[in-house]
Amino acid sequence: MIEINNFAKEKEFLICIDSDGSAIDTMTEKHQKAFGPEAVKVWGLESVKDIFLKKWDKVNLYSNTRGINRFKGLVKTFNALKVEGHNLPEITKIQQWVETSSELSNPALKREIEKSKNKEELKLALQWSQQVNQKISGLEKDIKKVFKGVKESLIKISPKADIAVVSSANQEALLDEWESYNLQEHVKIILGQEAGSKADNIKDLKQKGYKTKNILMIGDAPGDLRAAETNDVSFYPIIPTEEEQSWSVFLEQTAAQFFAGNYREEYEDKLIKKFKFILK
Q1: Which residue, 18, 48, 173, 190, has fewest beta-carbon neighbours within 10 Å?
Q2: Cα Rg for the chain, rounded, in angstroms?
């Protein structure tokens, strides 16, 4: 798979697609079997396990911060529980890094650890993130995890559009999943957290020569919408709990509307309003 520096525009349209929770039904499983439980292990939160996991799911799956970067989600969950009066371990150094770093990934965290004097908090964050990746790689793969309509949509749009996976997930896991589910052949580039933020990746792709009106971002989280808005490109929401219906509408209606140039003016606003209502 090519890197963004070597990416070259081939078609007039560009469609960016988020992975977890949008194309592949692994988001809930990853959070409930990897992210949350591994945090409990690393920070020794067994005494507040149920409370922590419930808050973790609320922050990362069932609110307007759905799809947030893993490190931001960690800080937000800890802080929310502290505000509620729960006694949790200190993560000040992690929060400082999250708030100041231009890249939130394992490689960036390793670089921060190398130059820091007080490393213990940051080492725990890296340990957690690495354990999450290991846990995710061991989760059973099942072709049914691909939402119905995704592959059909990729086949339909790939002759007209360059397709990019733009995700905040771990790059290695993304490559493995898209290859395992036989989706990679329809995609031109796959960009994970190591490539930068979604907004930056869309910006870099946009600069390859696409007209703004010819770019669409497909995603299931507010962060996907913000990435699209930052770059003034169109957004198509995959509605949480209505994923297969969303893909059906895209396949049967939205793709044609987008290529015809009338999606943004006539349909986008209504769908975004519904999307925001679901995740308010």
Answers
A1: 48
A2: 19
Residue with tokens 């006694």: 87
Residue spans of the domains in the chain: they are 4-25+144-278, 27-138
CA–CA dist 226, 233 (Å, integer): 10
d(CA 198, CA 166) in angstroms, rounded, equals 6
> In 3-state terms, what secondary structure has residue 162?
strand
What's phi and psi for 244, nearest 5 deg? -70, -35
Model pLDDT for residues 9-65, shown as the tens digit of each residue: 999 999 999 999 999 988 888 999 999 999 999 999 999 999 999 999 999 998 889
Q: Which residues contact 251 (CB under 8 A, 6 or more apart)?
A: 149, 152, 153, 156
Say if pTM beats, i.e. exceeds, 0.90: no
User: How far apart (Å, rounded) are the C-alpha atoms in residues 195 and 166?
Assistant: 9
Q: What is the pLDDT of residues 136-160, one digit of tens each?
A: 888 866 555 899 999 999 999 999 9
Burial class (CB in 10 A: 0-12, 13-18, 19+), 131: middle
Distance CA 249, CA 29 (A): 25
Given strand 13-17, what is the order of strands in its sheet?
A: 189-191, 161-166, 13-17, 215-219, 234-237
* pLDDT tens readout for residues 100-117: 999 899 999 999 999 988
